[in-house]
Write a structure and sequence with these properties.
The structure is a homodimer.
Chain A: H1 5-8, E1 16-19, H2 23-34, E2 39-42, H3 46-55, E3 60-62, E4 73-76, H4 80-84, H5 88-93, E5 99-102, H6 108-117, E6 121-122, E7 124-126, E8 147-150, H7 158-170, E9 174-177, H8 180-213, H9 219-227, H10 230-236, H11 243-252, H12 254-277, H13 280-297, H14 300-304
Parallel strand pairs in A: 1-2, 1-4, 2-3, 4-5, 5-6, 8-9
Antiparallel strand pairs in A: 7-8
Helix pairs in contact in A: 8-9, 8-12, 12-13
Chain lengths: 305, 305
Amino acid sequence: MAIDSEHSRAWRSAPVGIVGLGLIGGSIALDLRRHGLRVQALVHRAETAERARQRGLADLVSTDAAVLSDCALVVLALPLDRLLEPDPALVAAIPEQAVLTDVGSVKQSVLEVWQRLHGRFVASHPMAGTAQAGVDAGVEGLFSGRTWVATPNAQTELGALACVQDLAVLLGARWLCCPAADHDRAVALISHLPVLVSAALLQTADRAAAMADGGSSGTLGSLVRALASSGFADTTRVGGGNPMLGTLMARSNRTAVQLALAAYRQALGAMEEQLSAGDWAALEADLRQAQSLRPEFVSTDRSAG
Amino acid sequence: MAIDSEHSRAWRSAPVGIVGLGLIGGSIALDLRRHGLRVQALVHRAETAERARQRGLADLVSTDAAVLSDCALVVLALPLDRLLEPDPALVAAIPEQAVLTDVGSVKQSVLEVWQRLHGRFVASHPMAGTAQAGVDAGVEGLFSGRTWVATPNAQTELGALACVQDLAVLLGARWLCCPAADHDRAVALISHLPVLVSAALLQTADRAAAMADGGSSGTLGSLVRALASSGFADTTRVGGGNPMLGTLMARSNRTAVQLALAAYRQALGAMEEQLSAGDWAALEADLRQAQSLRPEFVSTDRSAG
């Protein structure tokens, strides 16, 4: 890409609009202010605006979409459902010349919706944790060392793409571009599937114990609760997360999640057959492969964090 | 139980025999020495004995089973396979009057084997992490606040049981008795099933990506590895563990693990149907239930640890 850096940095001299001040929006806002940029934020509720002002998340916080009028870059830091069915007043308030990006965890559907609505839209997804939510969740440095994925297509304007890249790099993220369909298939495997797999584990521990007890609060039910330790805590962490968010992800990335589930059913089914057949060599080979795969996905430092 | 405490503490005035100085055996040995008790350890290899001496794990370390001859309490801190097919020389060396216990993570099969071999055997399982292994893994205070399960049956001698309870409580553990079959069904659900579920997730992320790439090292394969973050790291931690240990657990607790897998297949299958049907309300209800279940299994402090 032959975008000169002066051009890609032009957005820095105008206010940046942030729509939504949850974990991602709030963290972007804090980092931008730390870099001396002016942040103007649009939020839904008056109480959120008040709390955001108390926290100093932005230079200007409003519930009126007109707050975006002089922004050269606008970041839609909204939940997936509000990205996919956007408020017409919001759409109308985004300046035609502004570069627009989002932070949604599913990209193909978001790209389809917003590319139609705004010429300078760039679909993007900063890969940052979602354990915390709300106006108190935003922190400085959230994106440092994390991957920030963009999913441009043939219609994406290169100047707009370079601007979003400059934002990501300014915030310390590693920039990565790929097709939206690849992004969605990848996150189905490493983010959305684990939520379902993990939630099913909690349900199973509860239901199978209750069934063995012949009721709902017997001996085995107490025992599984008393004996669950750090391994169970790790494996069930994402399954115990926000149910609305999990449902939105599955809903917005349905086909890819269905394919991931089918592949998963096959892998687990093979282990079930190994147990039935008493084929311990095959089971150990499978577990050995899993052990050798993990470091390819999880670097030691990230694993420890 | 009407066991007087003086009687149950008599073991403290004689040497304690520890067979195996891995994470569990080494940690028990360190704690006992800290309490001023004399520890005499039996290990398999001369190099292990040498390293154990360097670390000061025991007062006496030997590869000769005669080291157990004057012990009033002997702890079998061996891997499951060596518990289930014990060395005849070891069995012969355990003093007939000694209280004997083990630390295996499966209890019914261990109880069957050892109750036949030794009159004063108590099957037990201290629930402590297994991320580290070997003679360098043992640490002080490993059992503090953790649950130590014993699985007595009608043949278990109450005096021997009280002695093992005194050991567990001395080391700061929470004592819990239940039937061996209940223990095995509980750990199948909260410990053995998670290993398989977690390993299958690693395999799926690898295989489904490779299949989509039509090869073994294409775009999606790189992408899943680049995008995997803390959620994937958490969910796959136990699946990336020791494959021999995972296989031994499944093998020694086969029926309970098979039942757990069948129940799990049903729970995940229900979610798969919700996705096919687009029944988002039902999926959200399932995820909401998982969210509300997790705190029953994982206390906040343990989760953070």
